[in-house]
Structure prediction request, 373 residues.
Amino acid sequence: MNRLGGHGPLAEQRYTLQFGRREHTPANPKVCREGWSAGSFPIGIAIPTLAGFAIGLALTLAGSELLARGLTRLGTKLGFSEGLLGLLAALGADSPELSAAVIAILAGAGDVGVGVVVGSNLFNLAALIGLSAIVAGGVRVRRGPLVLDAAIGLAVMLAAASMVAGLASPTSVAVIVLPLSAAYAIVLALPRRWLSRVHPLLAGLPENLIEVPYEATHDQPMATHASWRPVLLLPVALAGVIGGSYAMVHAALASEPWLHLSGAVLGTVVLAALTSLPNLWVALHFARTNRGTALMSAAMNSNTINLLGGLVIPALFIGTGFARGSLAYFGWLLDLTLLAVLAPLPHRRLSRTAGAAIIAVYLIFAGLRVAGV
Prediction:
C-alpha cells in the first residue's frame, strides 16, 4: 500500500493528480523521464506552455509590425489626422486587452479582468509614452490635440471611477461617456473641408478651439507613390495580434500555479503587460517616425477604449460587483495620466527624463502589487 492508501497504477495516478508528479520508484524507470516537476508544475506541461508563449509572442510582434505599417500607410494615403490615426491604432491593438478582460470577468475572475483593464492602462502610459520617449530621444507633440485627447480620457476615467465607487450607476455613466466618445471620434474623422457645413452649430465656440483637431492637419495631400500592400495586409495583421495574444494569455494562465501569483498580480502586471505589447509596438513605430501626436493619441485612446469596453459596458449587464476593490488603482492611473499629459505641455516635447519618471512611477506600482501591498 502506498501513501494514498491504495495499490497499483490507480493509486499512483491519484497521487499524480493531487501533487502534480509521480513517485519515483525503481520498478518504473519511465517515471523519471515523465514526472520531473518544478514545484507543482511538471516539465511535461512547462515545455508546451513556454513554447506556446514563444509562438504567441512572435505572432503578436509580427502582427503588430504589420498593423503599424498598414495603419501608417492608410493614414498617409487618405490624409488622416494624427489623432484619427492614433484612434485607429488603439482600436486595432486593443483587441487582446479587451478580450482578456471580458473573458476573465464573465468567467467570474473579476479581479483579474479589472486588473487587465486598469493595469493595461498604467502599462500603456509607462511603455507607450515613457519608453517611446527614451527610445526616440524625446517625443514632440502638439498641445491642442494632446489636451483634447487627455480631456476625453480623463472624463471617461473619472466617470468610471465614480461608477466603481458607487457614486453613479453604470447606466448614468454610459449615458454620459458613450455619446461623448462617439462625438470625439466623429470630430477626429470629419474632413476639414466639411468644417464650414457644421460651423453654424459651433458658433459659440472660439475659432482656435474649433481648429484644435486639425492642428495635426486633416488635409495633407494624399500619397500616390506608395503601394497599398501594407493596407491590404491589415486583416492578416489583426489576426496575428489577436491569435498571438490569445496564446500568450493562456500560457500565462497555465503557469499561474507554478509562479504562485495572485489573481490581482496576474491581471494588473502580467496579463496587462502581455496584452499591451501590440500597442507598445505600434507606439514605438510612431516614435521612430516622428509622429508624436499620433503616439499620444494612441496611448490616450487605448486607455479610454479599455475603460469603456472592459469596465463600463460589462457593468451595464452584470453590475459593478466584479470591480470591488479596484478603486485604489484609479488613483495611480490618475496620477500617471496627469504626469504624462502635463510633462510635455510647456515645451511641446516629452523628454527622456520625463519618460523615465513615468516608467519609475509604474515600476513602483508594479512592485507594490507583487509585494502584496
Observations:
- The chain is about 75% helix and 0% strand.
- The chain has two domains: 1-35, 50-371.
- The longest strand covers residues 37-38.
